[in-house]
């Protein structure tokens, strides 16, 4: 059932005062200050219209069924289904819009996972408004965009597997569970959020702990802080 709290506006494309069609954006971010700031930014111009807001993965999927969206501006970490899982679910929609990830995570492995899952662009939240607008235009036009600093890292990084961060060796599911655990979620809470069994979560947790050679959750949290994985 659609989420009654989701703010969704549907309809046909709307022309701006210059006769061009405005880009209809769904802002998906669980931080109210971020959503309000983006709405104020877009209101200063004539290119973008915010037609919906979502604070969790369920609301994003409800908005897709309502239609009338040209671009999903997506945070990577929200309550419920999020991150790579949410990107894949959006892509599974019959007529999905392009996805531009706008995240606080400036780690190349996270950006790479998002792009591999089907996002058309990845930008960190510390970029200038001009860069965000450039990314929006390019992605809506069918192109791809990656944060300039991350793109530079991608060019110069070593391709040697033994020099990659430990978390880049995890599967998408293991990495998602890692992010939830370091945010303070229990195994039961992770299972409920991902709609999987406690046993499955425990198995994934054991595997990721083994891969990363960690003994306990404190090791995970220290690592996550060192690599800026905690929002």
Task: Explain how this protein is built.
This protein has 231 residues and is an alpha/beta fold. It folds into 2 domains: 23-155, Response regulator (Rossmann fold), CATH 3.40.50; 166-227, Winged helix-like DNA-binding domain superfamily/Winged helix DNA-binding domain (Arc Repressor Mutant, subunit A). Helices cover 46% and strands 13% of the residues. It has a 7-stranded mixed β-sheet, with helices on both faces. Strand 6, helix 5 (129-140) and strand 7 form a beta-alpha-beta unit. Helix 7 (172-182) packs across helix 9. It is globular. Mean pLDDT is 85; it is low at 1-12. This is Bacterial regulatory s, luxR family protein. Keywords: DNA-binding, Phosphoprotein, Transcription, Transcription regulation. The modification 4-aspartylphosphate is found at residue 75.
What string gives the helices and strands in order? EEHEHEHEHEHEHHHHH
Biggest sheet: strands side by side, in what order?
1-3-2-4-5-6-7
| Count of distinct structural domains | 2
**Mean pLDDT over the residues:** 85
Largest sheet: 7 strands, mixed
Q: What sort of overall outline do the alpha carbons produce when their principal axes are compared?
A: globular
What's the gyration radius in Å? Answer: 18 Å
CATH level-3 fold name of the largest domain: Rossmann fold
Ends distance = 30 Å
Regions with pLDDT < 50 over 5+ consecutive residues? 1-12
Total helical elements: 10
CATH class of the largest domain: Alpha Beta
Percentage beta strand: 5-15%
**CATH architecture assignment name of the largest domain:** 3-Layer(aba) Sandwich
The CATH superfamily label of the largest domain reads Response regulator
Q: How many strand segments?
A: 7
Helix content: 40-55%
SS-derived structural category: alpha/beta
């Amino acid at each position: 059932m659609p989420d009654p709290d989701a703010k969704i506006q549907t309809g046909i494309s709307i022309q701006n005062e210059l006769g061009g069609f405005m880009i209809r954006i769904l802002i998906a971010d669980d931080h109210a200050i971020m959503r309000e700031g983006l709405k104020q930014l877009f209101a200063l111009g004539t290119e973008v219209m915010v037609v919906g807001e979502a604070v969790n993965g369920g609301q994003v999927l409800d908005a897709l069924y309502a239609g009338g969206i040209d671009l999903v501006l997506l945070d990577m970490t929200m309550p419920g289904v999020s991150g790579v899982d949410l990107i894949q679910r959006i892509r599974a929609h019959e007529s999905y819009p392009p996805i531009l990830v706008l995240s606080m995570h400036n780690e190349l492995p996270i950006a790479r996972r998002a792009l591999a899952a089907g996002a058309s662009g990845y930008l960190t939240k510390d970029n200038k408004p001009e860069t965000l607008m450039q990314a929006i235009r390019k992605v809506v036009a069918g192109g791809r965009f990656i944060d300039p600093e991350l793109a530079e890292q991608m060019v110069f990084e070593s391709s040697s597997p033994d020099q990659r961060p430990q978390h880049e060796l995890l599967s998408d599911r293991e990495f998602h569970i890692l992010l939830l655990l370091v945010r303070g979620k229990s195994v039961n809470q992770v299972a409920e959020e991902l709609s999987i069994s406690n046993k499955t979560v425990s198995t994934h947790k054991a595997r990721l702990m083994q891969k990363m050679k960690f003994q306990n959750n404190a090791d995970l949290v220290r690592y996550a802080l060192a690599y800026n994985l905690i929002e």
